[in-house]
Amino acid sequence: MSFLETIRQKLFGNKDGQRADRGLLVFENTSEVIRAERVLRAEGWDIKVMGPPPEIQTGCDLVVEFPLIEGLNILRSLEENGSTPLDVVPVTGPLLDPVDLYQIKDFGEYLMVRAANMKLTVDKSTLVIVNISGGGCPDVPFLAAQMIGKTLDEAPAPREIGHTLCGYALDLAYQEVRRLCSR
Q1: What is the C-alpha radius of gyration for the chain, rounded to an integer number of angstroms?
Q2: What is the pLDDT of residues 29-72, one digit of tens each?
Q3: Are 88 and 11 in contact (CB under 8 A)?
Q4: What whole-number distance in Å separates Cα of residue 118 and Cα of residue 133?
Q5: First to last CA, the chain
Q6: What is the largest CA-CA distance in the chain?
Q7: Cα–Cα distance between 83 and 150 in angstroms, integer?
Q8: Nearest-CA neighbor of 32 among 80, 86, 75?
């Protein structure tokens, strides 16, 4: 069986003939997830970075959720860009649902968004970032110093100035806060 036939069977074929509408790309480490996300978003794919369900966790705390119908094209794009996943898993049941990375807490005057291990809190009336916490990466104090006291529009995106998983997670929280506050 060829590589593409193997992937086709994995994506579309199962014993019951069921077809899932979503799939998960599993990678060896977080850096590969970030690289794959960058490639796929640049090409306009509808993807989402999520936490892996326990059944497929490999040590990486993230997976990429994608529309299963586009699986072969997405895999081709990743391969062309040197980012091949360890596994491709169709979401065929509730036990394989990925875990949402976001936890949102409204404190009245303040809104806190947690993404993975990083938290960002903003004053809802002024949109000033009042706190950044979490993680254990060496760039967290630098990121906090660059962002706290600035509005969401003034603060640099953590992805632009951070270099670690914590910076990536903080950027996810930052983007979610911006989305929630733009409603």
Answers
A1: 18
A2: 888 888 999 999 999 999 998 888 877 777 667 899 999 889 99
A3: yes
A4: 6
A5: 50
A6: 59
A7: 36
A8: 86
Where is 156: in which H helix or E strand? none
* Residues shown for the chain: 183
Burial of 77 (0-12, 13-18, 19+ CB in 10 A): middle
Surface-to-core class of residue 7, CB atoms within 10 Å of its CB (0-12 exposed, 13-18 middle, 19+ buried): middle
CA dihedral 155, 156, 161, 165 (to 10 degrees): 70
Q: pLDDT digits over 152-162, tens only?
A: 999 999 988 98
**Residue 26 near residue 56 (C-beta atoms within 8 A):** yes
What CA–CA distance (Å, rounded) separates 168 from 159?
6
Output the pLDDT for position 165. 81
Gap between the Cα atoms of 12 and 20, Å rounded? 8
Angle, nearest 10°, between helix axes 165-181 and 30-42?
A: 40
**Measured distance CA(49)–CA(53) in Å, rounded:** 12
Token pair of 170 as six digits: 């903080």
Amino acid type, 46? D
Q: What distance in Å separates the CA atoms of residue 160 and residue 137, rounded to the nearest whole number?
A: 16
Half-sphere exposure of 50 (CA within 13 A, CB side): 21
Q: What is the pLDDT of residue 17?
A: 38
Beta bridge partners of 66: 23
